[in-house]
Amino acid sequence: YSRSKGIYDLSEHFGLVILSAYEICSFSHLTISINRFVAVNLPLSYSKIFSERNTLVMIVIYWILGIAITVWMFKLVECAQYLPDGTWIYAFKAATDFCWYGSFVINSTWVAIVAVLDALTMLRIQCTFV
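Structure tokens predicted for G-protein coupled receptors family 1 profile domain-containing protein:
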């Protein structure tokens, strides 16, 4: 079967969109984790912290942050991803250590924060019912 050359020509743009969506999802999960933490640990302040207006502001902020981080990685640090001809696996155009490890550290940080917040939330729930 033949592969469309157009896919490869546009792959850097698709890479930007895909990684932006990934960053936005990471921030969304972080916000959900913070939401749970506040609901369990600060129930009297929950409705003020997560009011409709504040929640909308948080959503806008994590969209902006997700896109900004991706654009920063792609354009300023030159860690653009693309499909090399003849493959179906994205690769960094400039395979610098920062592209690999910087991306890993950024995303691992969000995962670690979510894990800690969720663990603290579960610990608080466990302590409440024991």
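The two ends are 62 Å apart (CA to CA).
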